[in-house]
Amino acid sequence: MPETNNPHHVDWTPIRDVGKAEIPVSRYVSEDYYNREQDRIWERSWLMIGRESDVSKPGDFFTFYLHVLSTLVIVTRGKDGQLRAFHNVCQHRGAQLKHENCGSAKYLTCNFHGWVYDLDGSIRDVPQSEQFEKLDYDKRKLKPIHLDTWGGFIFINLDPADEPEHTLAQWLSPMPDPLGEYFAKENWIWRVGWKGIFDANWKIMIDVQLEGYHVNALHSKTIGGVFGPDQLRNLSFPDMPGMPTKLEFLRPDVSKDKNFRVPIQTPVMRAAVECGATSPFTDKDASSSGIPLRANHYPGAINRRDDPLWIFDDYQIFPNVVMMAQTDHMWLQRVWPISPHRTAWEFEWYFIDWPKNFGEWFAWEQAYCHFRDVTTQDMVNVEGMQKAFRAGSIDTMIVSDIEGGVRAFQDKVTQVIGEK
Question: 136 with 24, same domain?
Fold first, then answer.
């Protein structure tokens, strides 16, 4: 069923035809299942680890530790301007090469024995090299990791093959081209980020972001009534390698919903609606300074149906990213497994340019506080669910059609792991 006639768009499948309504909880607690995920999911997927702006100048680098594969990573921008990723490991005796989270350097020097590498991974100097009987400089250069970019984001792939099974473009194929341009070309400013460690399986952390069924109950005092769960559009892409589902969040259609209740709005919330475009309560298409929102310069990037009830698009990039795209901001959540029962969670929020006046500053701050509360509510249940799963208190979860994002994501897990 084609979504549009655009040749760059892919077909989507009705959610009722995807996955299973019952999902076994054993996949959230089994050590064996977790071990299979390491090889079949995490070692062969494209993983988002940063933005190109994090390493904007030659010599810039940042490091990253992928706990699930016990892998140390370093990303550099070479003197030639090219981005590269390597195992952050000296090829002398395996010492960690750089310990800083980020920095800038002409060369990469190991503090153990002083081996020096160029930013392209080649060896520049080995102290007392004459003491080695056979030293093959080419063999001892830094071990590379597949790297590619999309929308200004940096992705790596740890597939040991010469080339990954899928290119990044194939991995992200359901993403509309204008969305990549929107993310890549605008002056995105990192506004705020949160991190936390939760005693829960990583898949629970993704599940909670892929449905709107919980909004009116769990978020009754924050954004309850903003979304229309019955009108939430679940688009599924079961044949695409790295994009199981997209959700389009819509406001309730008051003309069709007799049970609609006006969302709780405090005076502060109402002021934020008037001052900026960061609130989910707003349907304005321009900032308070009168400047058209930047997304409008990229037709087809967001709200591709031009629906007046649209709030935001929600993409699940397999395996561990949930990304929300809006008119002048985006946020993303990433989860990183530590064990079957423990997960590192990250939240990052980006805006385009700095506010032009006090009202826009106010809207930023209100949005920050508001969604901090919403996100905290989302995380309330995950640890309790993991305890219930481990205790055997429930054997399977049952998910409805309006929780279709969960079904699509879990169906992709099933496909990749190789279950029937």
Answer: no
